[in-house]
Write a structure and sequence with these properties.
Length: 277
């Protein structure tokens, strides 16, 4: 089990065969992992602090992002590889089986974990996974993803983000795209962004979940959708997954990144979902 001395020091690293994984632990109690892709541990910090009152909270930088360097920067960041990393972290911490909450690409990661290592989890909450393979217009969407990647590689990253938001059906206020992704930006942010466009986006959106395995899993599988995400791509793909599983979506406050915009409300809803398990 996790010792008090480990929990009191939030930041740690775990060496794996082809990467060094940065992870953080907060609090004591039942283990919950908060997982993003490409979002790193810092994006979940406010939510983690709220949950750490009565949980041990694991957050991590996914491989190749921020403080988790990989030996081969050309390696594709697949959901299966990221699930393997999360499995190693859970085994290293030795406090499972765990609740795992994943958002966006991280939601795909935790679904891959549930398929490959069901013994390590008792509750899987996949918040807005971009499972394009489940949609009828997947051929057009995959073509759009290739155009997004090509636009980024041409040097027009702002244009790539514009095409990404359009395909995701995320409507931003005028000028916000330029404010977020234009002008001078942090080199680390740019490096993480480049890796996401070139080594992560394609593999994540091409992931096809094993519906039979998820149906048969001993873990409780919860598919979360933001209340403000209606009509967006990840709303559509999340609902397609619940239909395939024969379940209903669970609504969370906010949009695709509701846990960032309003972590207090999100934590309250997440606690309610956990109490239902």
């Amino acid at each position: 089990m996790i010792s008090e001395s480990v929990v009191s020091t939030p930041a740690h690293t775990l060496e794996v065969d082809d990467a060094r994984l940065h992870y953080e632990l907060r609090g004591t109690g039942p283990l919950i992992a908060l997982v993003g892709a490409p979002m790193d541990a810092s994006a979940f910090a406010p939510l983690a602090e709220l949950l750490a009152v009565d949980h041990t909270v694991l957050t991590t930088d996914p491989r190749g992002i921020n403080r988790s360097p990989v030996h081969d920067p050309e390696q594709e960041s697949t959901p299966q590889l990221r699930a393997g990393d999360l499995s190693r972290l859970l085994a290293h911490i030795d406090a499972g089986p765990a609740t795992v909450f994943g958002s966006s690409g991280g939601a795909v990661t935790v679904l891959a974990l549930a398929e490959a290592h069901p013994e390590q989890v008792h509750t899987v909450i996949a918040h807005e996974p971009p499972l394009i393979e489940l949609l009828d217009d997947r051929v057009e969407l995959h073509a759009g993803t290739e155009e997004i990647i090509a636009t980024h590689l041409s040097g027009d990253t702002l244009g790539a983000w514009g095409k990404f938001m359009s395909q995701a059906n995320i409507q931003l206020p005028p000028g916000l795209l330029e404010m977020m992704f234009g002008g001078e930006r942090d080199p680390r942010q740019l490096a993480d962004e480049h890796r996401w466009f070139t080594r992560e986006l394609r593999a994540t959106t091409h992931f096809s979940p094993d519906i039979a395995a998820l149906r048969d899993a001993s873990a409780r599988i919860v598919i979360g959708i933001g209340e403000d995400s209606s009509g967006q791509l990840c709303d559509r793909s999340s609902r397609a997954l619940t239909t395939a599983l024969g379940s209903e979506p669970t609504l969370f406050p906010g949009d695709h990144t509701g846990f960032v915009g309003d972590p207090d409300s999100f934590a309250t809803r997440l606690r309610a979902v956990l109490r239902e398990s």
